[in-house]
Amino acid sequence: MNSDLDRIESYYLEKLRSDPLGKEVCSESDFESQVKLLQEAGATEDEANQVASMFQCRPFHQVYDYILDQIQAEVESAVRACNANLPGKVLLRTLPTGFANAGAVNAPGGYLVTVRAELFQVIYRVCKVFCHSLDFIMLESPSGSRPLSEIAGFAPSGWTQSQAISSLVEIYDSLVDKHTVYHAPRHEIPMGQRQAFLDQIVYFAELFAVSHEYAHVLHGHCDESLESISAVERFHNEFAADDLALTLLLAPADLRNENRDAALDANYRVAGACIMFCVQVLLEACRSTDENLGFKSRAGAEYPSPMERLVRMLNSVKQRYPDWITQFADAVMIWSAGVMPALIAEVRGADEIKWIAENAKLRSQDDA
Ligand SMILES: [Zn+2]
Fold first, then answer.
1. What digits encode the pLDDT tens for the residues 51-76?
2. In a designed cystine with 266, which of 66, 213, 253, 289 is the match (CB 3.0 to 4.6 A)?
3. pTM of this prediction?
4. Dihedral (CA of 215, 292, 175, 61) sign
5. 37 versus 346: which is more confidently predicted?
6. What is the pLDDT, as a whole number, of residue 264?
7. Measured in angstroms, how far is the CA atom of residue 79 from the centroid of ligand 1?
8. How far is the CA of 208 from the centre of ligand 1 (A)?
9. CA-CA distance, 192 to 131, in Å (whole number)?
């Protein structure tokens, strides 16, 4: 038995007991209405019952524990591969769903990194929309500008940009109204190559989210008190955590070899990290709509916006790594520039999209 880990575990269990979402219990009528809504959203009866009972039988979040074990092993092996040293033991656990975020805190015995199960749900749904979008994301190829799905040799799904935007709006509405993505209609990805693409992007987005929290631990950010650091330092900390998270994510990638598998793997890793910021754009929009829904905005503009982080990280990747590893990431960038402003305009109104102009400004500065 490891006493440090035991102490962090007790801290986690205490946090779990006092978690406002941990106490929620679904009533019989809630259960039935949830099944009905899920079926209306396109789930089969079995699926609807299964999902509704997952929510009813708390702790639902523990269904993610096995993924977290795998992610933790991978992140910690990347930390060792980068010759970095964790300042203490880290316990990685899920918290009940309802919010969608992740965090790292200093705990007795070490550090506690938590992920809300809902974050993984949102990642999955947004990545699905991205995978359906490969038909209208145009990339340069030797034979001219062609859709990414065609370049990758996927059977066309026929999705248009407006379909992608309305799917994102459905996810947003479900999150804001029901605190879960389950009420957004499902758009299944055909089995085969496109499904494999989805699996990779989802996994690396999850890995990046956890790596980002580990990066805060490695940089010592969890040991600073939030009040003692300035807004500038908070910006700096987020950017530094993004850079280190990407270094960790790319640690197992083969960057010398340009064979197809190695190139695909590196591309999936960077694209997974990038799509995490698109997920954050959607979540930020949810947070600032209704403060009582669990998507509460962090104070003012004390943290960099997700799009700012995406643009900055992708530029830094391009400076640090060979250009063939960012082809899928460029596709994420092209996609997000098309769908994300439209999503925000749709759900928040055109007045609310000042950040798009700011982001455009930022991008042209970076290009200069
Ligand atoms: Zn952070």
1. 676 655 445 566 677 789 999 999 99
2. 253
3. 0.85
4. positive
5. 346
6. 92
7. 17
8. 11
9. 12
Q: From ligand 1's centre to the CA of 291, what distance in Å?
A: 21
344-350 own/partner pairs: CB under 8 Å, 24+ apart: 344/281, 344/285, 346/165, 346/169, 347/169, 347/172, 347/173, 347/285, 347/289, 348/285, 348/289
Looking at the predicted structure, is the pLDDT value of residue 292 above 50?
no
Q: What is the C-alpha to C-alpha distance for residues 275 and 310, in angstroms, rounded to an integer? A: 9
Strand 89-95, strand 110-116: pairing: parallel
Question: How far is 164 from 162, CA to CA, in rounded Å?
Answer: 5
Q: Give the domain range for residue 178.
A: 3-367
List own/partner pairs for 254-258 with CB under 8 A and 24 or more apart.
255/321, 255/322, 255/325, 258/324
- Distance of CA 12 from the midpoint of ligand 1 (Å): 20
Tell me: pLDDT of 78 over 90: yes
The per-residue pLDDT for range 26-50, each reduced to its tens digit, is 455 667 777 787 788 777 787 777 7
Question: What distance in angstroms lies between residue 104's CA and the mean position of ligand 1's atoms?
Answer: 8
**DSSP H helical segments within the chain, as ranges?**
3-17, 28-40, 45-56, 65-81, 117-132, 148-152, 161-178, 193-218, 231-250, 260-287, 306-320, 327-348, 354-367
Ion ligand 1, residue ranges at CB < 5 A? 238, 241
Dist. CA 261–CA 257, nearest whole Å: 9
Report how far ligand 1's centroid is from the alpha carbon of 293 (Å): 21
Domain count, the chain: 1
